[in-house]
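Recall the central idea of this unit: under ordinary conditions, the amino acid sequence of a chain determines the structure it adopts. In this exercise we apply that idea directly, starting from the sequence alone.
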Amino acid sequence: MEQLDISDGFDVHDYRHGLKLLKEDRGTMHLANREGFACPACGEPFERLFVSERRTNTFGNPGTAFCLARTDEKLLLLTH
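Accordingly, the structure predicted from this sequence is:
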């Protein structure tokens, strides 16, 4: 299982072969993990990935366990 590498930032295009874009708007995108990539925070497979370039975000109740990972430019929220 390949883990998302965020050590030098995060570029979604590096993982396009296994992530399905569900929704995208200005500064954010929601993706589904179709390849079983591992979470960069806990090492376990995740189901959904939210990527944001915004400085602030508001989230509803994800209804499941989640991890956060931060690069210099992006916040990643991964639900399990």
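The chain has one domain: 15-79.
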